[in-house]
Amino acid sequence: MADGRSTLRRLNFSSVIPSNILQTIAIDVVFPYMAYQLFMARLAAPLALLLVALLPLGHVLWQYNQQRRLDLIGLVALYILFWITLGALVPDASPLLLTVLHYVLPIGILGIVTLLTRWLRRPLLFYVDRYCHAHTPDHMADYIDYWQESASYRQMILRMNTGWGLGQLLFSFFVLLLFFLIPVAFSASIILVTTCLFYIVLTMWSVQQESKQAAEWDKMNSEQDPPAIGS
After folding, report:
1. pLDDT category of residue 222 using cuts at 50, 70 and 90
2. In this structure, is residue 230 part of a structural domain?
3. Domain, as residue range, for 90
4. Is position 160 within any domain?
5. What is the pLDDT of residue 144?
6. Helices (DSSP H) in 150-183: which residue ranges?
7. Does residue 229 belong to any structural domain of this protein?
8. Bigger pLDDT: 134 or 97?
């Protein structure tokens, strides 16, 4: 890094959701959901889901072709659609099997994968963090430099990676337990709401971790700033 201070200044730890992330959520999540509601009235569920998957798939391919950048939100949407489609392809699936296919397996597998990436060169949450904040090749390179040079940033990412990985793994078992504790008639709604709340809490915890890192980053910049002329 030629100029450590200038690189650090270009990093963005803001907890505000960038506009491009909101646009991506609309393309990969909101529009497919709306399209699914329209298709379901005319098509079988598996075919409707396959058609809906074309939206995030097309956006993932377009973004990679244009920016050489993976659309992580689109990949997550495709991952979820895969499990939903798998459940739709099983004839006369029981509520327990649907719960396993829609929640237990996808959440548990994602948790295990997240934990395993801790032993890679950079863990999964590093790429997620960079995806949320870096939007140009220069900014993406800055994050790699910061990962290599800042021990506190590495500790934060590893802590978040462990939290998301272990949290999702344990939550998948909790969902299975919850299924057996509540009436089947209410299980689908309660598990859906509980899952949404779980990810909201995880996200809020991650934002808190980012805020602490931002405070340390600001302190580091203030210490590196040269004294004002004439002071």
Report:
1. low
2. no
3. 4-224
4. yes
5. 87
6. 151-181
7. no
8. 97
> Would you tell me the crossing angle of helices 137-149 and 151-181 to the nearest 10 degrees?
100
- Give dist(CA 108, CA 169) in Å, integer: 5
* Residue the block writes with tokens 């889901």: 49
Residue 231 lies in a domain: no
Residue 193: Cβ within 10 Å count: 10
Are 15 and 207 spatial neighbours (Cβ–Cβ below 8 Å)?
Answer: yes
Considering just the CA atoms, what is the radius of gyration of the chain in Å? 21
Predicted local confidence at residue 9, as pLDDT = 42
CA–CA separation, 101 and 200 (whole Å): 21
Q: Which two tokens stand for residue 116?
A: 């395993």
Mean pLDDT of 202-214: 86
Tokens of 162: 């462990």
3-state secondary structure of 38: helix
Question: Which of 89-98's residues contact partners 24+ apart within 8 Å by CB, and which partners?
Answer: 89/46, 95/179, 95/184, 95/187, 95/188, 96/179, 98/188
What is the number of domains present in the chain?
Answer: 1
Q: How far apart are CA 174 and CA 197, in angstroms?
A: 13
Provide the pLDDT for residue 138.
81
The span from the CA of 70 to the CA of 27, in Å, is 14
For residue 163, give the nearest of 131, 109, 118, 193 by alpha carbon: 118
In whole numbers, what is the pLDDT of the chain averaged over residues? 85
- Reading the block at residue 90, the tokens are 């099983």
Distance of alpha carbon 138 from the chain centroid:
22
pLDDT at 215: 73
Q: Residue 221 pLDDT more than 90?
A: no
What is the value of pTM for the model shown?
0.83
